[in-house]
Design goal:
Lysozyme; globular
Length: 230
């Protein structure tokens, strides 16, 4: 079995050549399975059971798949940050009880993984956060606020952005399409919409497109259970 596990690590190291080999076995960077599945069920509701995500319960090395996503989508000059970006997504998602794949899907939707992205309304960085919103959250997280440039640091951006997603999720009582829409247009506008059928769906549909696309890729490329066993 030890030989089999070593073979698995070699296969993974070849498939993901830029990944820090040690981190493949570092459990503190493993995706929290209970959190991932629980939030996925919340997001998909009754559609969960027939989704690719339901077929991936118990899959190991999810951190490797997330790293691969970051590595492939980050601009060339930022690929060197793939490791710490992946670690931050996993760590912050776990801290807030959120599926890290969901956070990665928001990043892909907002900035296509470009840490230097700037929005027309003043949004900054990977998760395209407004500085006015970010400042308040940064103070709560004890992140030193140095103006909008604080959000150009990928780690700060993900920490603040994930905390904001969590804040909206609680505020809108874990109703996915409301807190997703609020992340895009602001909670005030969503609060004024009494009928849930009137909540704008364009943004949440786009996020879900990336969310399901990523899981579909993992379902196709995952290591068989008999190989992943330790």
């Amino acid at each position: 079995m030890k030989t089999l596990s070593l073979s698995l690590l070699i296969i993974l190291a070849i498939c993901f050549q830029n990944f820090n080999f040690v981190n493949l076995l570092d459990k503190k960077y493993f995706v929290d399975e209970q959190t991932r599945v629980s939030h996925a069920r919340e997001i998909l509701g009754k559609d969960y059971k027939k989704s690719d995500i339901s077929k991936l319960e118990g899959v190991k090395f999810f951190h490797v798949y997330l790293y691969d996503l970051a590595q492939k989508n980050l601009p060339a000059k930022h690929k060197k940050h793939s490791n710490r970006i992946t670690k931050t997504i996993i760590k912050e998602a776990k801290a807030h009880g959120i599926d890290p794949v969901f956070i990665a899907s928001i990043i892909q939707t907002e900035s296509s993984f470009n840490p230097e992205a700037r929005g027309l309304a003043g949004e900054v960085g990977l998760m395209q956060i407004m500085p006015s919103t970010a400042k308040e959250i940064a103070e709560r997280l004890k992140i030193r606020w140095r103006g909008p440039k604080t959000l150009l640091d990928p780690v700060n951006n993900i920490r603040i952005g994930t905390a904001y997603v969590s804040q909206l999720r609680s505020f809108f009582e874990n109703k996915p399409y409301r807190y997703m829409a609020a992340y895009n247009v602001g909670p005030g506008k969503i609060l004024r919409i009494e009928n849930s059928k009137d909540v704008p769906k364009f943004y949440s549909t786009k996020v879900m497109k990336y969310y399901e696309k990523f899981y579909k890729k993992v379902a196709i490329t995952q290591v068989p259970d008999n190989l992943a066993a330790n």
